Amino acid sequence: MTVTLTTREAIARAAGQLFEQHGYTGTSVRAVAAEAGVDPALVIRHFGSKEKLFLDTMDLQGHFGGATLGPLDELGERLVATLIGPGRDVRFSAYRAMVRASDSELVRARLLDALEEMFVGPLTPRLPGPDAELRARLIGAQVAGLLDQMSLVEDPVLVSVDPALLARTYGAAIQALVDPPSHA
Amino acid sequence: MTVTLTTREAIARAAGQLFEQHGYTGTSVRAVAAEAGVDPALVIRHFGSKEKLFLDTMDLQGHFGGATLGPLDELGERLVATLIGPGRDVRFSAYRAMVRASDSELVRARLLDALEEMFVGPLTPRLPGPDAELRARLIGAQVAGLLDQMSLVEDPVLVSVDPALLARTYGAAIQALVDPPSHA
DNA sequence: GTCTATACGTCGATAGAC
DNA sequence: GTCTATCGACGTATAGAC
């Protein structure tokens, strides 16, 4: 029920919006300050640096939580459907903003941590068969790759294809890592 | 047999090295000029802008060519083995530099083009069964994701795991998109 | 035609006055 | 806490010397 925002909240809100819209480089501290209606020096004073402001503002975990829930059977298809389903825009723009800022070492570390917490961690103890952790990490790679093509470089074919077909097709490839490997 | 480099060549060589080493943001036009032993203004004069210098310098196609050759049988495993096999460092650093610079729209477009030319184009006409183009693009996504985790965020587990095991495991997931889908 | 010298505008960040 | 003034570094442009 807060009618007024604290200065810090106003800055964070403006920063999140501008970072997702124009990227890290394309968003100046001065632009954030103008959007929030405060002095540019205040932005640095409150958050320490532009980089910390970015990391404090961007949140991946909040958008992808629970994607690995449910039975292992057909988990691949459900996982993809969750990623590209309703509300995909907020997920895509958060991931896109992070990767675009990956020239920063802290941002890369955050990306690795987020993937670990959201996919590798929950998945590893549930996968049957050998090399469970490796397979969980490779499922994470598949997720990252799909997000790359759909939200970062925006492959027009993938963006506009029937989501159900995409979930079925890519889900099968993910399922190949969920199910225990069959040796030749 | 050229003993001396032209100014343009010297700039390009210095730029390529610095961009791969310190990223786009971490490499200043002035640093490139100093490394090449020329005046900073010359860099802009020869290449137009820092962004064009980056695009002229970075080359993905040259490093990944021919990864999709050979019989479709076990193509997945061979593809991964080629990506992470001997000389992986040059491939990884080229890809890493590009993604780190993906705040630029031109760089993102180049990434999409490169993946299309190297994987989607050669693969689409060869894949049996329905949705060949979609499956080829999703194989591209799998490749991008693996490169993300190994060369951009540098997942320590994936970087140090036995390459043969990795090729076998991730190769099986790629093979699931090479082979025609089996409907339930 | 190259190259040098210099300068412009903007950036992230800091110091110190209210 | 907030603003003013300012710093050094950046990408880029241009004028003019070889």
Structure, described:
Two copies of one chain form a homodimer. With 184 residues, the first copy, chain A, is an all-alpha fold. Chain A has helices spanning 7-22, 29-36, 40-47, 50-57, 61-64, 75-84, 88-100, 105-123, 132-152, 156-160, 163-178. Chains A and B meet through helix 8, helix 9 and helix 11 of A and helix 8, helix 9 and helix 11 of B. Chain A binds a DNA duplex (18 and 18 nucleotides) through residues 7, 28-30, 38-42, 44-45, 49-50.
Keywords:
homodimer, 184 residues, 11 helices, DNA-binding
Oligomeric state of the chains? homodimer
Rg calc of chain A:
19 Å
Secondary-structure-based class of chain A equals: mainly alpha
List the chains of the largest interface with their residue counts. A-B, 49 and 49 residues
Number of helices of chain A: 11
What is the H-and-E element order of chain A? HHHHHHHHHHH
> How many extended strands of chain A?
0
CA-CA gap between termini of chain A = 62 Å
In round numbers, the mean pLDDT of chain A is 94
Strand content of chain A: under 5%
Low-pLDDT regions of chain A = none
Helical coverage of chain A, percent range: 55-70%
Topology:
The structure is a homodimer of 184-residue chains.
Chain A: H1 7-22, H2 29-36, H3 40-47, H4 50-57, H5 61-64, H6 75-84, H7 88-100, H8 105-123, H9 132-152, H10 156-160, H11 163-178
Helix pairs in contact in A: 1-2, 1-4, 1-7, 2-3, 6-11, 7-9, 8-9
Chain A binds a DNA duplex (18 and 18 nucleotides) through helix 3.
